[in-house]
Amino acid sequence: MSKLSNLSRSIKGKVVLITGAGSGMGRATAHLFSDEGAKVIVTDINKDRADRVTKEITDSKGEAINLELDVSNKQQIDKTIEEIQSTYGALDCLINNAGISLPSKIDVENYSEIWDKTISVLLKGQVEMIRSSLDLIRESESPRIVNISSTEGFGATPGASPYTAAKHGVIGLTRSLATELGKEGITVNCICPGPITTDMTSEIPEDHKEIYSRRRVPLKRYGDPEEVAHATLSLCLPASSFINGAVLTVDGGMSIKRA
Ligand code: NAD
């Protein structure tokens, strides 16, 4: 009898769709999956960014196509899924990563507008991506859905309630669908990054980042996008077949630090 069964630790040949893949963690995730032999569908609301990342991948002999996709636009989502159906006939991994961060105090005049936009991109966008791609994902031998939440998904920063509410919602969505889709062998997991160096955090002055990291993060630094990408990849491996409904924090230990 062999020591282990033959659960695959490779993502090679899998078809992987990443939203918001033109920058930051999405871009790093696209590169990592490509380096590991996956066929990557690079989508972003910003076509130039998606083009650039796709070219980076194909220039280094990876396999990638790019599609312009605003996750708050249901028609574009359906069109994207149709294109994947006709190009690949399958989807193995859906990575719901696209995001915006629009800080807003509860009493600002345009709060409702910011609320609607934030929820439509961060939460409803993930729901609609899952709903549209489900039939295609059902065809996979190792179907995986990974939703990107945040440490804001279980904590809170003042003045960002739409973002915080949406990210809490992503955890609820993940857990609920993990229970609903588990019987089909589809795993649904979620990652909660802490502070990561990307475009989203680029306007925070470096000295603020340093002070924040020193006080709050046991590893004393911001994370790199690829450090989150590795966590996403792990959840997508065929061998990760019993990880379902997990909320994986990737924050250098920030959320467990008390003093
Ligand atoms: P980023 O700004 O570098 O990348 C986000 C990408 O999403 C951009 O390319 C942008 O064009 C795209 N995007 C924005 N709106 C979109 C839409 N409607 N449809 C499709 N694409 C859209 O940011 P990032 O830090 O890499 O963020 C990735 C995810 O990680 C987001 O969900 C974010 O909320 C989450 N997150 C970020 C941090 C952080 O510290 N950077 C921490 C926790 C969670």
Structure description:
The protein is an alpha/beta fold and 259 residues long. It has a single domain, classed as 3-Layer(aba) Sandwich (Rossmann fold), CATH 3.40.50.720. The protein has seven helices and seven strands. It has a seven-stranded parallel sheet with strand order 3-2-1-4-5-6-7, with helices on both faces. Helix 1 packs across helix 7 and helix 3 runs parallel beside helix 4 (111-137). The chain is globular. The protein starts with 14 loop residues before the first strand and ends in a 9-residue tail after the last strand. The mean pLDDT is 97. Bound molecules: nicotinamide-adenine-dinucleotide.
| Spatial order of strands in the largest sheet | 3-2-1-4-5-6-7
Portion of residues within helices: 40-55%
Number of domains: 1
SS content category: alpha/beta
What is the element string, with H for helices and E for strands? EHEHEHEHEHEHHE
What distance lies between the first and last C-alpha atoms, to the nearest angstrom?
A: 50 Å
For this structure, what is the CATH homologous superfamily?
Answer: NAD(P)-binding Rossmann-like Domain
How would you characterize the largest beta sheet?
7 strands, parallel
**Average residue pLDDT:** 97
Low-confidence stretches: none
Small-molecule binders = nicotinamide-adenine-dinucleotide
Rg over C-alpha atoms, rounded to the nearest angstrom: 18 Å
CATH architecture: 3-Layer(aba) Sandwich
Give the DSSP E fraction (strand runs of 2 or more residues).
5-15%
Give the overall silhouette: globular
In DSSP terms (H or I, runs of 4 or more residues), the helix count works out at 7
CATH third-level topology = Rossmann fold
